[in-house]
Amino acid sequence: MPDVESVDGPIPVPDDVLGHTCPGCQRPFERGDVVGTVLIGPGDDPVARRAARSHHAYDGVGVLVHWICATGQDVITAPEAEA
Fold it and tell me: In the chain, what are the domain boundaries?
């Protein structure tokens, strides 16, 4: 399980992913859920792959999951989305 510091969030679930399946628990995202983005690696970008192998910063691929799936921490409410 990633450290909380390696997870972007918590945020309210974005409208465009409502109904999609969380890759962590296989349950659909529902209104009111709290989510975070977990970095999973450099993807197929050769520059990012080289940087990752060299232990340098890179733009990576992330997946959106329920906050509890990413961190094990329950969150009662997410911070309000920025207007």
Answer: 4-71
